[in-house]
Amino acid sequence: MPKSGKAAATVILIFFGLLAFREWRLGPDGNLRLHFLSVGQGDSTLVILPSGQKIMIDGGPDWSALAEAGEKIPFLDRRIDLLVLSHPDKDHMLSFPEFLRRYEIGAILLAGVKDSNPKYLEILALSREKNIPVIIKKAGETLSLPDQVSLSLIWPPKHLPKTFGSDANEASLVMLFKWHDHRVLFTGDIGQKVETALVAAKADLKADILKIAHHGSRMSSATGFLVAVNPSLALISVGSDNTYGHPHPSIINRLNKLDIPVHRTDLSGSLLITWER
Fold it and tell me: By three-state DSSP, how is residue 73 classified?
C-alpha cells in the first residue's frame, strides 16, 4: 500500500478509536430513547434504556433494521439485551436471524404461537444453538426490566378463542411499555376484532404514543380503540408506494377527526423520542 494510503487508513482507525473511547467515557446519560426505525413496509423499534441496555421490538422486512440499529448503537457495542417479536410475519422479523449472529442477545420475548415460516424456525434454531433464553408471555403478565421499565402484556390470552381464527396477526403481542409516567402501546398487526375485545374488557390501553396496528390497514384502528388509548402521537410504520394501500385514507381521516398527530415513516423517516429522567 502506498504511504498516502497507509496514512489515510491510520487516520480512519484513530478517528474510530477516539469515537469509541468518547462513547465509552461519556456512557449513558440517564435518558430513555425510542428509535422508531424507518424500515419500509414493516416494523422495527430500538429502545435504549437510561443505563444503556437495549431492546429491539420487531426486526422489519429486510436487513434495513440491522443497518438502522447499527447507526444508533454505540460503536463496538455488540449486545442487545432483549429481542421482542410481536408475531412471526416476515415484515416484522427478517433481520432477526442476522441480529442473532452478529450480536450477543440476552433473551427473546415471543407470543409463543406455532408457525412454519422458515425465518421463524431459523430464529428458534439459532436461539437454541446459542443458548439464548426464550421468554413466552401472555395477557396479564408483566416483564420487569432495568431502570424501572416494564412491558405489560395485554394480548394474546393464554388460550386464544377460536373466534379469532388462525391468523397470526390476531395473536400479535400487544404490549404497554412503561417508564415512570411515560407509556407506549405496541400493537403488532392486530385487527379491529382484537381491539374491540380489549376495549370491552376495559384493558389498560392509555398511552402517550400508539404504534398504529398493521401499518395503518383499514381493518385496524377502530374509533373506540383510538379513543380508549387517547394518544398524544400515533406512529405509522409503512413503506412508500406499498402495494397494500397503507395507510388507508379512512385511518388518516379517523386520526385527524380525533385530533391525534400522526408520524408516518414513509413521509418523515425514522423518529427519535427522548424522555428525560
Answer: coil
For the chain, domain boundaries? 28-275
pLDDT tens-digit series, residues 83-134? 999 999 999 999 999 999 999 999 999 998 889 999 999 999 999 999 999 9
In eight-state DSSP terms, residue 217 is -
φ and ψ at residue 184, rounded to 5 degrees = -130, 135
Distance between CA atoms of 267 and 246, rounded to whole angstroms?
12
Tell me the C-alpha to C-alpha distance, in Å, between residue 83 and each of 24, 108, 242. 23, 5, 26
* Separation between Cα atoms, residue 39 and residue 60, nearest integer Å: 6
If you write DSSP's letter for every residue of 192-206 in order, what string do you get?
A: HHHHHHHHHTT----
Which CATH code fits 28-275? 3.60.15.10
User: CA–CA separation, 89 vs 87, rounded Å?
Assistant: 6
Tell if the pTM clears 0.85, that is, is over it.
Answer: yes
Measured between alpha carbons, how far is 130 from 134 in angstroms, rounded to an integer?
A: 11
* Omega of the bond leading into 247 within 30 degrees of 0 (cis): yes
Q: Which residues pair with 175 in a beta bridge?
A: 153, 186
Q: Phi and psi (nearest 5°) for 120?
A: -65, -45
Report the run of H or E that residue 51 belongs to, with start and end.
Answer: none
